[in-house]
Amino acid sequence: MPDVIDFQAERDRRNGPDEQFRTVDQAGRPMFAFLAEYETDAGIFCVNFFAYDFADAELRVSSMRSSLTLAGQIYAEIPG
Question: What is the pTM (predicted TM-score) of this model?
Answer without folding.
Answer: 0.74
